[in-house]
């Protein structure tokens, strides 16, 4: 997999742009989620929650960027394999499981109170599946490379 | 892709950790390179060639 080589200032600008895009996407996702789950009525003001989220996302992205720059290409390749193959396969499995649960006769019931909770459960389920897929894909890469 | 990394390393009596330190990569990456399951990037291939003072083609052989 090829990586673009950027000089110092372009690298910083690209990093800043990525932080802004991810921050904006996170903020929009947060507001949509807040509308669906009823968090708008939470005692903590929505602006404070959003500010905390932006700070957390920016810090996570900055730390990830520094860590990624510090590891060698074998380690990166294993993580990219985990992300691409593991994550993609796990997402497909999650889709099949979701279709099996909701497309057929409703034999499974969830103790949920509204559409927001069902949406939240779906997001959590997809995230959990992708995380498992990521770890499996990462481990498979190292297992194959070490044999 | 096949390579002669293991042989070249053994000739110099280097451990995988020694080679990893010289190439500034992890020992696991050296192991993955030696098994031929992972092909290095061009910059790393050039670094390996410079370290062993050989051409890239003398170290890596395309199996196709």
UniProtKB/TrEMBL annotation, chain B:
GO molecular function, one term: DNA binding
Gene3D superfamilies: lambda repressor-like DNA-binding domains
SUPFAM superfamilies reported for this sequence: lambda repressor-like DNA-binding domains
PROSITE patterns xref list: HTH_CROC1
InterPro entries recorded: Cro/C1-type_HTH, Lambda_DNA-bd_dom_sf
Domain named HTH cro/C1-type: residues: 5-59
Keywords: DNA-binding
CDD domains, alphabetized: HTH_XRE (cd00093)
Protein name: Helix-turn-helix transcriptional regulator
């Amino acid at each position: 997999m090829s990586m673009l080589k950027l000089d110092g200032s372009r690298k910083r600008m690209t990093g800043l742009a990525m932080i802004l895009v991810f921050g904006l996407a996170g903020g929009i996702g947060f507001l949509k989620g807040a509308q669906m789950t009823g968090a708008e009525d939470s005692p903590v003001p929505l602006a404070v929650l959003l500010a905390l989220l932006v700070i957390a996302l920016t810090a996570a992205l900055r730390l990830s960027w520094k860590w990624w720059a510090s590891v060698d290409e074998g380690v990166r390749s294993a993580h990219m394999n985990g992300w691409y193959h593991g994550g993609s396969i796990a997402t497909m499995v999650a889709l099949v499981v979701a279709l099996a649960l909701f497309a057929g006769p409703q034999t499974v019931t969830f103790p949920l109170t509204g559409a927001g909770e069902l949406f939240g459960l779906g997001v959590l389920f997809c995230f959990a599946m992708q995380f498992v897929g990521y770890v499996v894909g990462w481990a498979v890469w190292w297992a194959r490379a070490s044999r | 892709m096949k390579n002669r990394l293991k042989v070249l390393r053994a000739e110099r009596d280097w451990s995988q950790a020694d080679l990893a330190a010289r190439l500034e990569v992890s020992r696991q990456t050296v192991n993955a390179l030696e098994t031929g399951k992972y092909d290095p990037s061009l910059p790393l291939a050039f670094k390996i060639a410079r370290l062993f003072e050989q051409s890239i083609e003398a170290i890596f052989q395309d199996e196709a």
